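M20 family metallopeptidase: structure, please.
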Amino acid sequence: MTNIYKEKQGEIEELLEELVNIDSGSYYKQGVDAVGNVLKQEFENIGMSVTVHPLEDRGDILQIQHPNAKKPDILLSGHMDTVFPEGTVKMRPFKIKGEYAYGPGVFDMKGSLVMLLYAMRALIQEGHPVVERIVIILNTDEEIGSIDSRSLIETFASQATSVLVIEPSSVPGIINSRKGGGKFFLDIHGKSAHAGAEPEKGCSAIEEAAHKILHLHKLSDNPGINVNVGLISGGTSINTIAPTSVAAIDLRFEANELGVFAEQEIRKICLHPVLEGITLNLRGKITRPAWVAPQNNGRLEQTFIQSGKKMGLTLPLLYSGGGSDGNFTGSMGVPTIDGLGPSGGDAHQETEYLYLPSIHTKGQLFINGLKELAVTKELIGGLQ
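Here you go.
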């Protein structure tokens, strides 16, 4: 069988450019739905059936499977949203320089979406029976915790014998465990006053935020816990005591008991104001459980490791500090592997890049691994 990624390289790069040049930040429903519409058409063109799960405030989720799939037991998981707001594409659209592609979301994870499409196209063209055992869920809120899509992912995972997550990876290997995470938002209300004429009549919400940030960041001194206030906003003008402020808090933890402890400490810190006249309100919660490498993952991991060896690839097992939808399925005890998308780096940054040849390499690995999974019914059953 010919390598579809080499044979269709021009098409692949054209589709990648089309997807990257659509702003699709998690909060920009119109853009995420535009990406979904392109992918819906592409998957239908190769003979897949696409069910749209509508969401009011986020992009609509796509469920994709072969028309003959009755009880698919291999879940493929990916996402269509990025972290970049509307207008980013206009400032830095897709470009190729040598063997690298650049643009918002090119690495995380529009390259993975293209890789997935052509993997399914190759398997369908070959007539391989594994396509009838696959269900694909492409969600639209992964970058903000998969709040709206989690239940759908977990529903399909509960019926699956294996889950393959097509998140990209900056280093070669297979991810089989990840930190858990949570997102919190602290609303701070004070009182405005003229900063020069009557400062004593005001109460600064920004000053209160400064106290809270210092205490929150100290939680990272606890082993296995990382807390970061990544966004801060507030105030009305430079010469006004700030009446309001909002602090966005990111929590990561290596074990679920550490997550429980950290959330309790965050709530304690955010319960009592330092300054008189301040009121506080904390929103948010833990959004992803920690995914600890389970004992029943071995056969799934080895299937892809051995497929990689046949291609001359060494694939070590990796632990990631970042979260993904693999946290949900892995923590459910369903055999899950992650990081199967193409290679690149600088995710969520202006310098984000994708190594184009890795679409070919990781895509062929993905195809070979799926085919190996379906060699015998006993192998799939043994993954439970």
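Notes: Residues 180-288 form a domain with the Alpha-Beta Plaits fold (CATH 3.30.70.360).
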